[in-house]
Write a structure and sequence with these properties.
Elements (H helix, E strand, L loop, with lengths): L1 E3 L9 H8 L7 E8 L2 E9 L7 E7 L9 H15 L4 E4 L10 H10 L3 E2 L8 E4 L2
Parallel strand pairs: 4-5
Antiparallel strand pairs: 1-2, 2-3, 3-4, 5-7, 6-7
Amino acid sequence: MELQNVNPQDISDAAIRDRYLNGSRSNFTFHFLASEMGTEVGFLAVDINPDDVHFVIYGLFVPPTLRRRGIGTRIIEAAEALGRQHGYKKAMLIPKSLDEGFEQSDIEEWYRSLGYRPLLGGTCNQYVKDTH
C-alpha cells in the first residue's frame, strides 16, 4: 500500500477525489491518496501534530466497488506505519461511517478486529490502539 500526498486534480477516481476535497482540515491534517500497484484504491486523512500523544486517523475511504477486499485494512496498516515513522506509539480514531449502508456497530466491530479499543474516559466515542 502506498500513501501519496497529491493534489486533488491528480486523482482520477471521482469518488476518491470528492472525499479528498471534502475531508476535514486543520493545520496538522494531511490527506493521502492510497494506491496499490499504480491503481487508486482509497483516501486517508490524518493529523500529524508533534504536540499530540496520538496519531489521529480522521478519514478513511474506499470506493464501494473496491470494498470487502481488505483494502481498508491495508490503508489502516499503512497509516499506523506512517504514525510510527513520526514517532507515535498510539493511533486514535472515531469510528463513524460517512456512507449510508454501514451500521455503526459494524464499523466499531471492524475497528475492534484491527485492535482498536474504546478510550476510557475519552469523548466522542474515541478508539485507540498501541501501534509500537
